[in-house]
Design goal:
- The structure holds 2 protein chains of 2 kinds.
- Chain A contains 9 helices and 19 strands.
- By secondary structure, chain A is α+β, with helices and mostly antiparallel strands.
- Chain A folds into 2 domains: 146 residues, 3-Layer(bba) Sandwich (FAD/NAD(P)-binding domain), CATH 3.50.50; 151 residues, 2-Layer Sandwich (D-Amino Acid Oxidase, Chain A, domain 2).
- In chain A, the strands form 3 sheets. In chain A, strands 1, 2, 9, 10, 11, 12, 18 and 19 form an 8-stranded mixed sheet that branches. In chain A, strands 6-7-5-14-15-16-13-17 form an 8-stranded mixed sheet, sandwiched between helices. A 3-stranded antiparallel sheet of chain A has the order 3-8-4, with no helix packed on it.
- The longest helix of chain A is centred in the first third of the chain and has 16 residues.
- Chain B is an alpha/beta fold.
- In chain B, helix 1 runs parallel beside helix 2, helix 1 packs parallel to helix 8 and helix 10 crosses helix 12.
- In chain B, the strands form 6 sheets. In chain B, strands 1, 2, 3, 4, 5, 6 and 19 form a 7-stranded mixed sheet that branches. Chain B has a 5-stranded parallel sheet with strand order 8-15-9-10-11.
- Classes of the chains: A alpha+beta, B alpha/beta.
- At the A-B interface, helix 4, helix 6, helix 8 and strand 17 of A face helix 11, strand 22 and helix 13 of B.
Chain lengths: 365, 473
């Protein structure tokens, strides 16, 4: 007799695992399935920035809650609250910075504007070309490489079933759901799709068309360097994020685009993106010139046309749910995964979810 | 700056250089890239300027001839060039290079990858002590600098390389304290029929062994180095008798020495092929994971060809002909008629490949050798990770090389996993009760070699920064 789980969760990233933990705590028996290893998609390859300065205004309450979740996970995920500066190097960038960070501060982020002198005092190795900057003491980072290790440990500790390298190739709905995998069929009463950039093909197995697209973000890391910066550095245009890890390596991101599609594998690094990304990093932090880049990689950041989350019932399929496409998903993921668990358990979530049946071409929330 | 050519060849060893030469004879423009200043690869490495008068060896003669052929050909040789990224374009390939502190790119209609091999060393306690170097690393010292690893050296490892290194140390005036090899005399006898296909190479090997015997150098068959002692330098090398599957048996004996050359066979260097988009398959007889390829270097990706030890360990003699076949394959792809030429080459390739694969079979470590690694032995040198730490991560559920890399940083250091990944994969396979074929290497990431930020930044002008539409508020 095969086991029937209370819920099958397709996608073992932060959101799928966080939902599984909440569901298990609420008395359900979930099984988490991933086509690869746990936490190796966007959850495990993003730059790990936890910055309120790059969160959407409407999502700020979720981001603030998310920060607390990361702080709670602490050392096990390499969490560091360092504070963070967002830099403007031109008058136009300063204007952009002011306009955007003011709205984010109004939404509840403790963001203030600081003078170039203050930036220079706090981060003397930054280029003395800063014309304006904002600061948020809540900002910091975690080590996204540890996502898989962390959640694998959590699932094991809670006795939650999970299957890695277990792609779902078909889903049938009759009395509950039957998922076809290379390791045999898996049966469950409910279904949660949390497959990130792979949500579209996974939902298509149920005949649902989710308008999910993916950005292909590039991240690079240098060899170990002597201490250069102690906070998380951003850029008014969003084209740079930079932090130095305790081991001395400097991680550089900024949403520069690689090539490929989620269906084709891991995506490829584009030299035409890496070069200006690192050039901008060196412009902001001249001492980086001597560092060698050891590795660049890409991750798929899923989104829908209105850039708000999918979090709720899967349209047209009873007992099925979907969670993903959260802008700032690394920061918000552990929190919204819990909200999703509450929703499936029939509880009122602490903050509202985002109906996947909405019209994506209108402003929501 | 972007240059354009018909065929780009990565790697100027016997395979790549021969691929370049034959393709060039068919009137195609060929650029031959290598990270060393001169062609020849590891096996036919060129002498440094300081030792040009040194006596010739078969390797220096073969390398010298190759360099001469290249000089007389229309091939453009671009030494000191490291490929750090490969991208496919509509009309072929774009190679991103690191050369003299800059990052020029090269466009090519077809690409031949001939990146060769690297050495596998089974970690034993003390293997990171100064004075320990790889067998293959030692040959680079002899060929380029005529330098010796030390005054009194233990030479240990599998296959023919251990005898070559010992013979070279003696020829250059050094002392070989002992030769220690996991192979037995019986292993060598069983390889004789395949070796007889290349009597020239067989004779050369026999002369190395005879020289060692005559000189009274102790040769410990079916033994392996089990521990290296010494703080700042090698002092004592301990070694143990092995069983049939090369599990260590009996008490260790020891020999005093100031240096140790240690190697357990070669592994195809496949990261370049992975980045170019080739899938891998597990072929233990060829040294482990190799990119899939068809006849004459052809691959599943049109315009991408593969040859030499990077396609499976078959040795230098085979690589020369394999390179010619792949070069002709690439020329055919670009419209030249090379079928007859390739048909003529195939029988000699088959002979040489059989010889090479017999040597590979002798060199591949058997399962028991892994037991030499102990809990506190460093496995990942870059991040100082011990066998025990990696075993604990695997016991905690990390069941792929990518998962171990993410959780522990094994493979995230400067070497990019070149030293530790074979050991890590074997540990996972053993823990999961499965097969090494179920544990592929981690995802390959660029750059293939570290690239300075200053080189990538070039003469960046801030005003050229493409400012995107701001992210949604």
């Amino acid at each position: 007799m095969t086991q029937i789980y209370d819920i099958a969760i397709v996608g073992g990233g932060i959101m799928g695992c966080a939902a599984a933990l909440r569901l298990s705590a609420g008395g359900m028996a979930p099984v988490v399935l991933d086509q690869g290893d746990l936490g190796q998609g966007a959850s495990g390859v993003n730059a790990g920035t936890l910055s309120l300065q790059i969160k959407r205004v409407e999502l700020m309450p979720y981001a603030l809650k998310g920060h607390h979740e990361w702080e709670r996970m602490g050392d096990a995920v390499g969490f560091h609250k360092t504070g963070g500066y967002t830099l403007a190097f031109t008058a136009r960038e300063a204007e952009l910075l002011h306009e955007r960070q003011t709205l984010k501060a109004e939404a509840g982020a403790p963001i203030t504007f600081v003078s170039p002198q203050e930036v220079h005092k706090a981060e003397p190795n930054l280029a003395q070309k800063v014309v304006a900057a904002s600061y948020c003491p809540e900002d910091g980072y975690a080590n996204s490489s540890l996502t898989g290790q962390y959640y694998r440990g959590q699932l094991r500790d809670q006795g939650i079933a999970y299957r890695e390298r277990c792609p779902v190739t078909a889903i049938e709905q009759g009395d509950g759901f039957t998922l076809t995998t290379p390791n045999g069929p898996i049966r469950a009463r409910r279904l949660l799709l949390a497959a990130g950039a792979w949500l579209n093909p996974v939902a298509a197995l149920m005949g649902v068309d989710l308008p999910v697209q993916a950005r292909i973000n590039t991240v690079s890391v240098t060899e170990r360097m002597p201490p250069l910066i102690s906070t998380v550095i951003g850029h008014a245009t969003g084209l740079l994020t930079m932090k130095q890890k305790p081991n001395g390596t400097v991680l550089v991101g900024g949403g520069w685009q690689g090539r490929g599609t989620p269906q084709e594998g891991r995506g490829q690094v584009s030299a035409a993106s890496v070069m200006p990304n690192l050039a901008l990093a060196q412009y902001a932090l001249p001492a980086l010139a001597k560092a060698r880049v050891l590795r660049s990689w890409t991750g798929f950041e899923a989104n829908v046309p209105d850039f708000y989350p999918l979090a709720g019932a899967l349209p047209g399929v009873k007992d099925a749910f979907v969670l993903g496409c959260v802008r700032g998903g690394y920061t918000i993921g552990p929190y919204i995964g819990g909200l999703m668990g509450d929703f499936i358990l029939g509880r009122e979530p602490e903050l509202p979810l985002f109906d996947p049946a909405r019209n994506f071409n209108e402003e929501t929330a | 700056m972007t240059e354009m050519c018909d065929i780009a060849v990565i790697g100027a060893g016997p395979a790549g250089a021969n691929a370049a030469l034959v393709a060039s004879r068919h009137g195609l423009t060929v650029t031959l890239l290598d990270e060393q200043p001169k062609p020849g690869g590891q096996v036919w490495r060129a002498k440094s300027a300081a030792i040009l008068d040194a006596p010739s060896t078969p390797e220096s003669v073969a390398g010298g001839q190759l360099r001469q052929h290249l000089q007389n050909s229309a091939v453009t040789h671009l030494g000191d060039s490291r490929v750090w990224q490969i991208e496919q374009s509509a009309d072929g390939w774009v190679l991103h290079l690191l050369r003299h502190g800059q990052v020029p790119s090269l466009r090519a209609r077809a690409l031949v990858i001939a990146t060769g091999a690297r050495e596998f060393v089974q970690p034993v306690p003390g293997w990171t002590t100064p004075g320990v170097l790889g067998l293959a690393g030692a040959t680079a010292l002899f060929k380029q600098e005529l330098a010796l690893p030390g005054k009194r050296t233990v030479v240990s490892g599998t296959g023919p390389l251990v005898f070559f290194v010992a013979a070279e140390i003696r020829r250059l005036g050094g002392e070989v304290a002992a030769v220690i090899t996991p192979n037995s005399r019986g292993d060598w006898l069983r390889a004789l029929p395949a070796m007889a296909r290349r009597p020239d190479l067989l004779m050369r090997g026999a002369r190395w062994v005879a020289d060692l015997m005559l000189a009274g150098v102790p040769v410990h068959w079916r033994h392996a180095v089990s521990e290296v002692e010494g703080n700042n330098n090698v002092k004592t090398v301990r070694f143990r008798k092995l069983g049939a599957d090369w599990s260590p048996k009996a008490e260790a004996r020891s020999v005093e020495a100031d240096s140790l050359c240690l190697g357990n066979g070669l592994i195809p260097a496949v990261e370049t092929a992975q980045l170019a988009g080739l899938a891998l398959e597990h072929r233990p007889a060829l040294g482990g994971w190799v990119p899939k390829r068809g006849a004459d270097g052809e691959t599943a990706v049109p315009g991408l060809f593969l040859c030499g030890d990077g396609a499976g360990i078959r040795g230098a003699a085979s690589a020369e002909i394999d390179g010619q076949l792949a070069g002709l394959g690439a020329a055919q792809h670009l419209g030249a008629e090379t079928a007859a030429e390739r048909a003529r080459l195939r029988p000699s390739y088959t002979r040489a490949a059989r010889f090479g694969m017999a040597m590979t079979a002798l060199s591949i470590p058997r399962k028991g050798l892994a037991k030499l690694t102990r809990d506190d032995t460093i496995v990942c040198r870059c991040e100082s990770l011990t066998y025990g730490a990696i075993a604990a991560e695997i016991a905690g559920g990390a069941a792929s090389t990518n998962a171990v890399k993410s959780g522990l940083r094994a493979g995230m250091g400067a070497c990019g996993g070149k030293f530790c990944q074979s050991t890590v994969a074997r540990m996972i396979a053993q823990a999961e009760g499965g097969n090494e074929a179920d544990v592929p290497p981690p995802t390959a990431r660029p750059p293939l070699r570290p690239v300075p930020v200053a080189a990538l930044a070039g003469d960046f002008d801030y005003s050229d920064l493409p400012i995107p539409k701001p992210a949604p508020l």
